[in-house]
Write a structure and sequence with these properties.
mainly alpha, 2 domains, 282 residues, binds fe (ii) ion, Hypothetical protein af1432, 0% strand
């Protein structure tokens, strides 16, 4: 399985593609001279996307009293990054919308987890290294995309890893290690490369399970992943730093030591984002 899985992926004819609009919007935002009007014009070339973004900005998620009728107003009010995140999230989910019924992976749970990691990663980046906020959001959304590829196109392999995970009560990535196979992070990074996503984003996806060793975006996404999977309030409603994070890098400690102060608020944001993005796929 290990050496030829990438060749097999290359042969999948209906492999999901990322709409050109995502790359275009990413590119425009790298250019500091891009204006709200230029960005709006690109988004407005995609009518379905325009309609969905307007629906999003007018939803209770943002809670504006007056109706926002154009993308340029949305960009002005919400800012470039928020509109970019909406474009990326809607596009990525649309690319995979065809994948609905998988034997061992509940697709709703998958996107709920991915959105939660995206939103928490962005929060951690906003409060430690703002230059990484966009990559952390997109990377968070895509970090486990390799699992979706495995479950859809390599169902027997996925099933084997899944059963090892259940039987041995270990994590999915540890089950992959046990099977000595290419892991979902490498497969996700391979897909991200095929999609021509920027290299820091590819690296962040590739290393999201490589404990605290590589690029900052990968560390942030790895930590957010761990928080989403293990962080719950105790009987008094406090949220303490999970054990696995006690030796997290210093740049994240201020946020990790004050989880009770911000984590519950983000849960509400995640719940509304999930509701909107799941509904928009229907
Ligand atoms: Fe993962
Ligand atoms: Fe994950």
């Amino acid at each position: 399985m290990k050496p030829d899985i990438f060749q097999q992926i290359d042969c999948i004819r209906e492999l999901p593609t990322l709409p050109a609009i995502v790359l275009k919007v990413n590119q425009m935002l790298q250019d500091l001279d891009t204006t709200a009007n230029q960005l709006s014009r690109v988004i407005e070339t995609d009518q379905a996307m325009t309609a969905k973004i307007l629906k999003l900005v007018n939803s209770s998620f943002y809670g504006f009293k007056s109706t926002i009728g154009s993308i340029s107003t949305a960009v002005t009010i919400l800012g470039f990054n928020t509109v970019q995140h909406a474009v990326v999230s809607l596009s990525v989910m649309k690319s995979f919308a065809r994948i609905k019924n998988l034997k061992r992976l509940n697709i709703q749970d998958f996107w709920r987890h991915s959105l939660a990691v995206a939103i928490i990663s962005k929060h951690l980046a906003d409060h430690s290294d703002k230059t990484l906020s966009s990559d952390c959001f997109t990377g968070g959304l895509l970090h486990d995309i390799g699992k979706l590829i495995l479950a859809e196109y390599f169902p027997e392999h996925f099933e084997k890893i899944w059963l090892t995970m259940i039987d041995s009560a270990i994590s999915f990535v540890d089950a992959e290690k046990m099977a000595d196979t290419v892991n979902h992070a490498e497969i996700g990074a391979y897909l991200a490369e095929k999609w021509l996503l920027p290299q820091p984003l590819v690296d962040a996806i590739r290393h999201h399970h490589s404990a605290f060793s590589s690029a900052r975006a990968a560390v942030i996404i790895g930590v957010a992943d761990l928080l989403v999977n293990t962080c719950f309030p105790d009987s008094e409603g406090r949220i303490l730093m999970p054990d696995g994070l006690s030796d997290a890098p210093a740049f994240l400690l201020p946020q990790l030591q004050t989880l009770s102060g911000w984590y519950p608020r983000l849960q509400e944001e995640i719940a509304s984002a999930c509701q909107f993005f799941m509904d928009s796929q229907g």
